[in-house]
Amino acid sequence: MKELILLLTLLFALHTNANTDPHISVLGQLPKVSDVQVSPDGKNILFLNAVNGKNWITITSVKQGEMAPKYMEVGTGTLRDVEWLSAKHVWFSGTATHYSKADNDTFTLARSGVLNIDTMKVYWPFNTNRYRYNISAPKLLNKLADQPNKVAMSYYYSGVGQSAGNVYTVHIIDLEEEEREDIFKKSDSRNAHLDSKGNLISYQRWDGKQNVYVTYVLDKESDDFVELQDESGEALFDYNITGFDKKTNSIYYYDLNDDQTYIVKKAPLEGNKVGVPTVIAEQQGLDVDYTVKNYHSSDINGYVYIDDYPESYFFDDELNRIQQGLKATFSNASVRITAYTPDKQILTIAVSGDDYPNEYYIYNRKQKSLDYLMQGYEVKDRAQLGNVAKFTYTASDDTEIQSYVTIPAKVSDNKLPLIVLPHGGPESRTDMSFDWLRQFYALNGFVVFEPNFRGSSGYGKNFTTSGYGQWGKAMQQDVYDGVNAVIDKYNIDNNRVCIVGASYGGYVAMMAAIEKPKLFKCAVSFGGVSSLANLMMHSENQKNSISYWEKSIGDYSNKEELMKFSPQDIVKANSSPMLLIHGAKDTVVEPGQSKAMHNKLLEKGVKESKHIEIDGADHWFSKPETRTRFLQESITFINKYI
């Protein structure tokens, strides 16, 4: 194991990035390593590697000398996910932007392939004209434990005639022969499930008459698919199935608890009817975030919920004991088992928190060793990192809001400046896992406040839906109330407050600079929304439904109401200075939104504002040069005003 650690140290020593600001040099880069996973045979380690603006898949042996490190570099695209399919096959996905002349628009396209680590050649299962213009990537459905070197995937293509719209397809992929078998296709369908032998056992299809997705299950007697009914046998079962247990002929599905938090239930199948369910995953006051699959069989094996950190629970007793032991070792951090051998003797572990800048370990239970492997962010002195703490406050309408406050490691008796950092989404949330942006501002001496305002996810359906229709209203007020609570609680200089946000967070920042210029002395937006109508129109142009945005924001046809809560339509002459940064290849929020906002500011006489469009940058800080530029520009702008 020491040999592996030495090899990885030498590997990363070959790659350096010079920058005059040491904090930008470290935190302005993508994580040097991510998605570290041990192979099914326990011989190799797989991870995504990002250094000096390039990203690639790296495979190295656990024991030095067994195999020289191997690399697959990605050109202009960005690697997103990676996973072992077998001891010699790796599934990966990535994204790249593409300009469509026919649509006169730029799209972010996702693609996936299979890497053979023996030959280092890639097999593209869907590299045909039928799937050429798809926007999203294929989905890995099942690793087919009873079919060695075969996996199941789903995809879609645009239909014609009676099959107009998207046709959902399911396939068996032979990894060795590099062949694709098409086993299912239906229009307006989704969410297929297969058994470990590759047999289709359920899927959902949209029923326009009933306005619902109907679940179909395989009836053993007729060998045909029938509509799944609820316990009464008189109504359709319309819950979201997350998995099947073939041993007990049961389904796992999401439901709502009495407190309206999302839980997981397990229920037996009785013909085409669902039997009496049992709650198998719940957490008081918090949603089950997602279910966890067995790394080798794709069977449901646990779940994750997010409290202050993502917390994992396994139904497998042995794995759960391992998880709880690791959690005790790394108490103030997120601890995640990323992969393990079938006998659970060798595991790779991801640890993240303010003391752990995305670290990875390998746990060998036979040797009783837990060894450090690599670190995503090369923070040399962890003592310099800010200390993150939960902060609960009450909004002006008595709604309780959870948030996090980060205090710089080095503080004086003087009052401290404050950075307000609302998250994007808005249907997402922040937690206490390591965050590069939070820590960058803390390292520069700022207290950082991150509210999980109403509309955030993870705290139950009612809390999330209470944010619907509240852009610029109650969600915005939650941020203002939180800032006032932080000023009252902590040693904050209320004349030195700036707000920074990306996407929806950028919207919040712009609104704050317009509505509360005395409180917020400046605002920084990255890819922020300045026109609600434009966001919805652009979503349509990107081949997406706007039904979610109509729930979240409001009626698309009511342009007058949308303008009342769009920063570019309500900007004032006394608005605080704004730094508006946007990626030129942002396909979520059009780059023109920041340009239009800047022009409106100049028209109103807010001459201190600044607009920057970064060539090649997308919506997600996917490139190190984007992060570096953002950090450099934002800290210079903030220091100028507070």
From TrEMBL:
Which InterPro entries did the record assign? AB_hydrolase_fold, Peptidase_S9_cat, Peptidase_S9A
Provide the GO biological process annotations.
Answer: proteolysis
GO terms assigned for molecular function: serine-type endopeptidase activity
| Record carries keyword Signal | yes
Locate the Peptidase S9 prolyl oligopeptidase catalytic domain: which residues?
433-641
Q: Which Gene3D superfamilies match?
A: alpha/beta hydrolase
* Protein's UniProt name: S9 family peptidase
> What organism is this sequence from?
Psychrosphaera ytuae
Give start-end ranges for the coiled-coil region(s).
none
Its keywords, alphabetically, are: Hydrolase, Signal
A Pfam family it matches: Peptidase_S9
Signal peptide (UniProt feature, chain positions): 1-18
Bilayer-spanning residue ranges: none
